[in-house]
Design goal:
Pfam family, one: DUF4440
Distance between the termini: 22 Å
Oligomer: single chain
Organism: Streptomyces sp. MSC090213JE08
Number of domains: 1
Number of helices: 3
CATH architecture: Roll
Protein name: Cyclase
Helix content: 25-40%
Largest sheet: 6 strands, mixed
CATH class: Alpha Beta
Shape: globular
Length: about 140
């Protein structure tokens, strides 16, 4: 679950992050995809942003192949009006590409979220490789 203790987040934004991690860790591709605006993009492969149906297919493929478990911690959060920028430290355990077990990944995501009319937040940009991790 995201650790927002170090960074004050609006309740609805914190709930969005918790819900996203739960869907991600359970392998629920549709649930993960529902956390994005219609035009929202993921940049899960550097230099290759995808959105719409391609985004949904990429999420489904990634979750199915890697069976990931992610943990996140919000390092920085900037909220103005209906827009939020989050800097998120993440660690993930995934199936190794060679099929020999599990491997650990880590990174720092830069995420832009938009507040919806109903008060919920959705990703407009999800870039898990936006910054280099701290050593």
């Amino acid at each position: 679950m995201p650790n927002a203790a170090a960074v004050a987040l609006p309740k609805e934004l914190e709930e969005h992050l918790e819900s996203y991690v739960a869907a991600f860790n359970s392998g629920d591709a549709e649930g993960v995809d529902s956390h994005y605006t219609d035009a929202g993009i993921i940049v899960w492969e550097k230099g290759n942003p995808v959105s719409g149906k391609e985004r949904g297919a990429a999420i489904k493929e990634f979750l199915g192949l890697t069976q990931p478990r992610i943990e996140t911690e919000v390092r920085e959060a900037y909220v103005t009006g209906d827009t939020a920028l989050l800097v998120v430290d993440w660690t993930m355990e995934v199936n190794a590409e060679d099929g020999t077990g599990r491997e650990n990944l880590r990174g720092v995501g830069l995420d832009v979220l938009r507040k919806q009319a109903n008060g919920t937040w959705l990703y407009a940009v999800d870039d898990p490789f936006g910054e280099e991790p701290r050593d």
